[in-house]
What does this fold into?
Amino acid sequence: MIDNRIAFIGSGAMAEAMIAGLLRKKLAEPKNLMASGPRVERGAQLKEKYGIQPFTENNAAASSADLVVLSVKPQRLSGVLKELKDVRPEAFVLSIVAGAPIQKIVEALKNPAVVRAMPNTPAQIGEGITVWAAALEVLDAQKEIARSLLGALGEEIFVEDENYLDMATALSGTGPAYVFLFMEAMIDAGVHMGFSRRIAEQLVVKTLTGSVAYYQNIQTHPAALRNQVTSPGGTSAEALYYLEKAGFRTAISRAIWAAYQRTLELGKETPVHIPGTEKE
It folds into this structure.
C-alpha cells in the first residue's frame, strides 16, 4: 500500500495516530499522505512533524486520493460529505466516524466501496483495538489496505455485521473514558487517605497495568481472579461489598448501554436529549 495516496478528512488526534502508525510501520511515504482541516496552524504542525501535505479544503485533499479517511466529529459529517464532490470512482473510503452507517456514506459520495471502523484512544500509541466492517463492494485488495492501516494502530477485528460497530463504539471506543474515570477515583481516594498525588498515581497505574498483564498471562475468567484476592472477612471482601452495594457493575453496564444508544442516535442524527429540558 506504500504507493497509495491517502487523504485524511479531519486532522485531529486519531488522524495523526493513523499517520504516525503508517509511517512507523513504513506502510506509506509522507509525500503520499494528505490531511485536511480548517486550522492552518494544525496543518503546518502536521507537515513539520511528519512531512505530509496539509489542506484546508476537504475536496482538494480527497480529489487525488486512492483512499479517503473520514476522521471528523459525527456532528460535522453531513456537511463534510457535501463538500466531497470529486472523490475518484476507483478510490475507496474508510470512516472512523462514530455512529455513521456505511449506507449514509455510500449514498452521499455515490461510492459503494466504504469501510467503517471504530478505533479507540490507545491507538495513538499503537496499543489500540479497532473493530471494522466493509460494504460488499469493497475489493479484497482494498480490505487488505484497510487491514494494514488499522493494524498500524494496534489490534484489529473484522466483522461481517456492521451492527457490531455500534456495540464496539460503546464498549471499546468509549471504554478508555471508563478506565480513566476509575483511575481518577482511585487516585483521589489515595490522596484522601494521605498519599501524595504522585505516589497515588504510581500505585494506581501499576496496579491496573499489572492486573491486566496478570489476567493476560493466566488466561482465566476475571471472576476467578477476583476470588483469588478476596479472603473471607478481609479487606477485599469489605471493599467489594460496598462496590456491589453501590451498584458498581450495574452502573458500568448501564453506562455502556447508554453509550450504545447514543451511538444509534448519532447514526440517525436525532436531537440530543438534555435531562431537565422537557416541556411542562
About this structure: The beta strands are 6-9, 33-36, 53-55, 67-70, 92-95, 114-118, 128-134, 154-158.
